Amino acid sequence: MTDDRDLALQALFADAERPLTDTAFADAVMSRVDRRRRRTRSARICLGLALALGAWLIAPTLQAVAHLATQAVTLPLVPLDNPLLAQVLAPVNSIAGAGALGLAGLWHACRSIFA
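Above: the chain sequence. Below: its structure as tokens.
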């Protein structure tokens, strides 16, 4: 290995030590940052408007599906002839009641296993 210094490398280091007096670089960077920020904001606004339009267009279909689902979960599992007995057992004798009891049992089983 030699002790000779490379003149080109030494010139690069000398250039790096002097302070930057020109603010054009910083101004250019800041203008690009501001431009990107404006573009991002406008893209988010356009995306939000597109999602709102899509939700507005699909809302009647979702409302119909929700209406059918609420009618389906109230159907009795076992049809009963006695109206008083059917009314008393309605919370348990429905698809929703069976689902709620199943979830409660599952929750209790998980709590007993992992507790």
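The chain has two domains: 1-73, 75-115.
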